[in-house]
Write a structure and sequence with these properties.
single chain, alpha+beta, two-stranded antiparallel sheet
Amino acid sequence: MIYRCQQQETVDMICHRHYGRTSGAVEQVLEQNPHLADLGVILPTGLMVNLPELPTEPVILKQIQVFDNL
């Protein structure tokens, strides 16, 4: 998928919005778009970024008990 950057976006913001996570996604996006690392943290508005399809990761929820902190 080709994504057009919006104002003041970073690679991790795009990954969080598109994939719902940054872990592993940022690295994959940077691998697909090696020029992004040279542009700095804030990407230029309107820049086209290739977002690869990534396998979904299972969501692991930590179960807590009401009295865990006592």
